[in-house]
Amino acid sequence: MRDFWGRSIQRIERWILAIAPSRSRSNVEVGIMQSDNEPQREVSSPLWASYVAGLFDGDGTVVISYNSEKRRYQQLVVSVSNTFVPVLGKLKSIYGGSIDSLGQPRRNLRAKFCYQWKLTGRQKQLCFLQDILPYVIIKRQRVELGLAFLQLVRSQGASKERLDPLEVTQRHVVAEALRVLNKRGI
């Protein structure tokens, strides 16, 4: 199988392995819509972290989503969208998360399918955002707000206890700041 420019997929995989070495070839092969609960975290090099930060600056996002039932809880979601699955597979092998197909744009039938790597879970998100923070340029404020939100979230997960009004206010301030930054045109 060849890509648009005539390069073989194996050649592309070798190139990915050369710029970001992994433990095995199977880390590059990605199963779409599979979740990885416990990734084998490897220490990322500054070169890889800067590459991922550039990828995130161009195609990444940090959002706070709400539960649809009366906005009961908030969840931070970190994601990167791209048409090149092996890069997203490398992100999945290092940080965990899942890769979903977003489909093909309806306007242009010759366009490539787009895929999204989505990272949930406080510890995984902290690792990823802290790794890319020194290198992110365009979306630095979003990354900093994401880290601030994660500091406000309790580490033990969901709890039956009510939050302090101050905690609720702090979370809403961070969520509103992220919403304004993510608004189109900004």
TrEMBL record:
<dbReference type="InterPro" id="IPR027434">
    <property type="entry name" value="Homing_endonucl"/>
</dbReference>
<protein>
    <recommendedName>
        <fullName>Homing endonuclease LAGLIDADG domain-containing protein</fullName>
    </recommendedName>
</protein>
